[in-house]
Design goal:
Helix 2 runs antiparallel to helix 8 (about 185-210). The radius of gyration is 23 Å and the shape is globular. It starts with 5 loop residues before the first helix and ends in a 19-residue tail after the last helix. The protein is mainly alpha-helical. Strands 1-4 form a two-stranded antiparallel sheet. Strands 2-3 form a two-stranded antiparallel sheet. Helices cover about 50% and strands about 5% of the residues. It has a single domain, classed as Orthogonal Bundle (Transferase(Phosphotransferase), domain 1), CATH 1.10.510. It has helices spanning about 5-20, 25-55, 90-95, 110-115, 120-135, 145-150, 170-175, 185-210, and strands spanning about 60, 70, 75-80, 85, 165, 165-170. Strand 5 and strand 6 (about 165-170) form a beta hairpin. It comes from Stichopus japonicus (Sea cucumber). Pfam families: PK_Tyr_Ser-Thr. InterPro entries: Kinase-like_dom_sf, Prot_kinase_dom, RTK, Ser-Thr/Tyr_kinase_cat_dom, Tyr_kinase_cat_dom.
Length: about 230
Amino acid sequence: MENGTLRDFMLRNYQQKRDSESICDSQQRVSSDEQKLNLVRFSVDVVEGMTYLFRNKFRHPALTTSKVLISLSTGKCKLYDFVPEDHAKDRLLRIIAKKNAPLAWLPPESIFFRQYCEKSDVWSLSVALWEIFSLGQTPYSGLSGDEIESHYGMEVICLNQCLVLGQSLEFVIFVDITTSSRPSFEQLQQRMRLVLASMEEDTVNNRIDDNGDNSYFNLEEPSCNFNSYI
């Protein structure tokens, strides 16, 4: 698609702008609000895409934002490089066998036991959401494969500290070591839609507050004789 991958788009359009000091405060505030709303929209697209794939018996092992395309004309995100359900385990094993396997996106059951299920993709999806809200950063950046594996000894992965709009998205990006405790795609979809609806409502209210209502009635000089209605 026109903008390439979602990760490239965020690094090009959001990371560089955040690092630049040439934008004035008012422009930066507006840009920041729009950016946060866009990040949630991207996330909803990705979650809905994964939900759709699951319903139609497709899988996407080790999903990352580099496996998400974004359209310049619509701003919509589309997933690619997914596989039929019965090919997912083989795909996962090939990914793990790579020299530089993307361990940061893989769940512990896949790394340590070569196991794979629906909730394995939920783990990868949650890490991809963290990528989005960190503007394309790499999880566990700078850590070796062994160091990344050592983090999986914790009860809950520490990616749930992502913040947006001053509120924690922990309830969305929460990923548990135990597969049965992870949310379903449908639950993630519902949660992200609620976040998006709340943000869009806030955006509308903020625009109303910023624009104000300049329609006033002049009470000192009424344009009609109220006595005529009595």
